[in-house]
Amino acid sequence: MIDSNKIIACFGEIVLRLAIPAGELPLQSPRFAVHVGGAEANVAVALAALGHPVRMISAVPEGPIGDAAIGELARYGVDTRSILRRPGRVGLYYHLPGGPARASEVVYDRADSAFAAAEPGEWDWDALLADAGWLHLSGVTPALGQRSADAALDAARTARAAGVGLSFDGNWRGRLWERWDADPATILRAIIGEASLLFGNHRDAALLLGRDFSGDGGERRREAALALLGAFPALDLVASTARHIVAPDRHEIAARIDRRDASCQTEARVIAPIVDRIGTGDAFAAGVLHGLFTDTDIEGAAQKGLALATLKHGLHGDFAPFSPTALAGATAAASDVAR
User: Fold this and answer.
1) Is residue 325 part of a domain?
2) Catalytic status, residue 216
3) Is residue 222 part of a domain?
4) Considering 282, 295, 297, 336, which one is annotated as catalytic?
C-alpha cells in the first residue's frame, strides 16, 4: 500500500493529558500525572517505534512547554521539523478515572490553542506532503473548530490529488463538536470522501449515512462497512474493533477489517488487568497501518492492530512506543518472564 521509504505524515493537535490519580476526585490531592498525547501524535509515535519514517505536522506554543512536547515526540524517532511554533497555549484535557458506579470522564480545555487558532493558509500542504506516501488524520481535528476542519479537508484533498494514501480515524468527540456551530456529518463526509482507509464502526456509519444498523455482532459491522464502502468510492478498507466490558479492569476486544469483496474478524482477546485505556484506539490504528504497510494482508493487519491495542492497555500514558519484537511477541495470555 505504501513505499516503505516514503514518509508517513500525521496531522493533528499535540496535547497534554492531566490525569487525576486513580481513586481520587479532582484536586483531592495536589497532583496530576502529565502525559503528552493527541490522537494523531499517538499514531505517529507508535509507527515510529515500529521503524517507519514518520513526520508530525502540528502547531505548539513558543516556549518551554512547546519545547517539551516536541522533545517527547522526537525521542521516539518522530520527525518534528514540520511542527509550527506560534503564539498561544497548549491544548489540555483532564482524565478523571472512574470507580464503582462512577464512569471515567474526559474534560477538555483546548479552546484557542496554538493549533486550533492556526489559519488554514498557514499549512503549505504541497510542501508538507511532497515526499509523503501516506497521511493520517482523525475526527478530533475537525471537531476543534472551523479553521481546523478546513485545514483537515485541505490536507485530505491535497493528499488524494498527489496520490498520497489517506487514513481517517472517526474518533468521535461530542464534547468538542458541541462547542461550536458545526454540522459534523457534512464536515466528516467531505474529508472521508478523500480517504482510502477508515477506522470506524456501525456508530460512525450511522452518523455519516443518517441510518441505523440494527443487526448484531459481525453481521451488523459487515452491513455498516459495506454501506460505508458504497457511499465513499475512494474507500478501500474499513477497520474497527468490538469491545465488551466485562468489568472496569477486564475487557474483551476483537478486531475486524472489511473490504468490498472480503472481510476478516479476529477472535476476542481478554485484556486484564487494564492499566490505561486512553490511546488504545490510536494504537489499534497504528498496528493496522503497520500491518498493511508490511504485509498488505488484512488478516495480519487486523491481528497486529489488536496486538498493539492490547499492549497499550498495560502502559500508562497516551503513547504505545512498542518495538517490532514486542508486537510480534504479544499474545492474549500472560507469558513468563523473558530471561
Assistant:
1) no
2) no
3) yes
4) 282
pLDDT by residue (tens digit) across 95-136? 998 888 888 899 999 999 999 999 999 999 999 999 999 999
In a domain? residue 182: yes
Print burial letters for 18-40: b (CB count within 10 Å at least 16), e (below 16): bbbeeeeeeeeeeebeebbbbbb
Does the pLDDT of residue 337 top 50, yes or no? no
Confidence of residue 218 (pLDDT cuts 50, 70, 90): confident
Peptide bond just before 97 cis, omega within 30 deg = no
Distances (CA, A) of 226 to 84, 200, 260, 272: 39, 12, 6, 32
Could you give phi then psi for residue 103, rounded to 5 degrees?
A: -75, 155
336 has a pLDDT exceeding 60: no
Mean pLDDT of 320-335: 79
- Measured between alpha carbons, how far is 188 from 207 in angstroms, rounded to an integer? 9
Terminal CA-CA length for the chain: 37
Residue 148 and residue 183: Cα distance in Å, rounded? 14
Is pLDDT of 293 > 50? yes
Residue 44's domain spans which residues?
7-320
In angstroms and rounded to an integer, the radius of gyration of the C-alpha atoms of the chain is 19
How many domains does the chain fold into? 1
What is the predicted pLDDT for the residue at 319? Answer: 98
pTM of the model: 0.95
Q: Name residue, grid cell 500472560.
A: 334
Tell me the CATH number at 67.
Answer: 3.40.1190.20
User: To which residue does cell 503549505 refer?
Assistant: 124
The widest CA-to-CA distance across the chain, in whole angstroms, is: 57
Structural domain includes residue 178? yes
